[in-house]
Protein 1
Amino acid sequence: GQQVMQIPQYQHVQEGEDFTTYCNSSTTLSNIQWYKQRPGGHPVFLIQLVKSGEVKKQKRLTFQFGEAKKNSSLHITATQTTDVGTYFCAPNQAGTALIFGKGTTLSVSS
Amino acid sequence: DTAVSQTPKYLVTQMGNDKSIKCEQNLGHDTMYWYKQDSKKFLKIMFSYNNKELIINETVPNRFSPKSPDKAHLNLHINSLELGDSAVYFCASSQDPTEQFFGPGTRLTVL
């Protein structure tokens, strides 16, 4: 079955530093979604990547989909305290449901 | 207007009891889901319904029974609650294969 690994599990940064979380799949993916869950909140959709090598930006967030469509990354430039939360990748293989990674929990100190 | 709503928000109960969690979505989506999130934040899918039909049933104890009276509702009934059932349960909906919209969650505590 599909295996999803997301690293790191935890990351603490100083405000203004950059942050990256990585998601790796053992199989080729149809697409991958990213979600953010604030402490005490529910997962909220950020973006979906579909094409090989795709790069999408949302303000300070940059999302990449690997050329082989087996990995993805989320990079945050100059973190702010509002970026605190857990970031989940959710790879999708054709014909199956989303499988959420274990998430990367980001904490930011000012 | 709340897109995906769940009730109750908190549920504290004794071992062995039976309880239900309700979920409603007003987005007109065809697919609804139940997820369990444990204390380590691992988000695991339990069930998925498409137009009132069960399409995903992951390995969960048969004490858990989903029911979808119509495509806007997906309820979760749990029999004979156990300590290990304590978790946050999220309902979600989507118009496949697009983004999923999550409800606020139900924090279940079994004593």
Protein 2
Amino acid sequence: EAGVVQSPRYKIIEKKQPVAFWCNPISGHNTLYWYRQNLGQGPELLIRYENEEAVDDSQLPKDRFSAERLKGVDSTLKIQPAELGDSAVYLCASSSARNEQFFGPGTRLTVL
Amino acid sequence: DQQVKQNSPSLSVQEGRISILNCDYTNSMFDYFLWYKKYPAEGPTFLISISSIKDKNEDGRFTVFLNKSAKHLSLHIVPSQPGDSAVYFCAAHRWGKLQFGAGTQVVVTP
């Protein structure tokens, strides 16, 4: 069974530029999560989807971050414009009816 | 508001000995707890979990203990192996959301 796929793995951009991350969850997993992990810290939830619906986006900085999950499968997280403080690893995870979340390898974003 | 804390950023243990990782939480409404293991340049992988109604769960070399009155859980790895060298995250679940601790870097030495 394929795991959670994320791309790109690494991204370096200048501040004020836009950036997008893509996630393909495990087949059959209805719940999809985007996390941000800063250096030396644990992952922090940005947004959670149940199928196409964003059921928890309370931690998503909506002035510059947006996300979508069309057709309830793949998801894209966008930052526009990026700031220096956005440098982090962005993790996607998915889960089924069970509570265990499966994580992708993450996208390491560096904003210069 | 850091509701899950791992106060030891690092742990060094000799191969074959026991590794004990600790985690404290503040919210008594968490309904289960998980441990994740993370290697460099990879995402966290699930290791073991425990429901808030249990006090112990064992899976091979890994055992998690939960002390609800103290709001404390621990992960025991015995015996420790070189492949156990990684960062271990404690996570607590409530309403579909996981809150993670900052992680503990474990180094298993020969």
